[in-house]
Amino acid sequence: MKTVSKNSIWLPALFEDLFLDNKLDVLNNYETFSIPAINIIENLTKFGLEIAAPGLQKENFHIEIEENTLKISYNKEIEDKETERNSKFIKREFNYENFERSFKLPENIELDKIHASYENGILKISLPKMEEKKVLKKMVEIS
After folding, report:
1. Which residues are CB-contacts of 57 (< 8 A; sequence separation ≥ 6)?
2. Residue 22 lies in a domain
3. What is the mean pLDDT of the chain?
4. In the predicted model, is pLDDT for residue 136 greater than 80?
5. Which range of residues forms the domain containing residue 58?
6. Number of structural domains in the chain
């Protein structure tokens, strides 16, 4: 996504802090919710998803497929309510306690061979493609 400079004649720096940087989070609670970034990769044999989710526990991720839709969610209980009550965030740009992302899968994915791993803060999901049927080509002689 292209970043637009807000410091201009029409929108002076004085008003910069009044506007939210991430327009996608406006409908959600901006102070306590973020959606992790994702990469989608395709090669000849598979699709790959990489989700940037540093500091999360793999046990709290849930990946399910229903009607050709891949749903990735993360649910974590807030553990330290006392610290949260006695502290105030000056700025909060991430909080991955709960999130959900959904993706429509192409029809050529082998659902039973999908694999996921979580390493170094990246959740990787491998979506193997079905092998294409080889078309036999034969020349027929006209008599």
Report:
1. 76
2. no
3. 76
4. no
5. 29-128
6. 1
Q: Which CATH number covers residue 111? A: 2.60.40.790
pLDDT tens-digit profile of 40-55? 999 999 999 999 988 8
Residue 57 pLDDT > 60: yes
Give 75's Cβ-side CA count (13 Å radius). Answer: 4
Residues 6+ apart with CB under 8 A from 10: none
The token pair that represents 142 in the structure block: 């006209």
Q: How many CB atoms lie within 10 A of CB 125?
A: 21
In this structure, is residue 18 part of a structural domain? no
The answer as to whether 4 is a domain residue is no
d(CA 19, CA 57): 32
The amino acid sitting at 32 is T
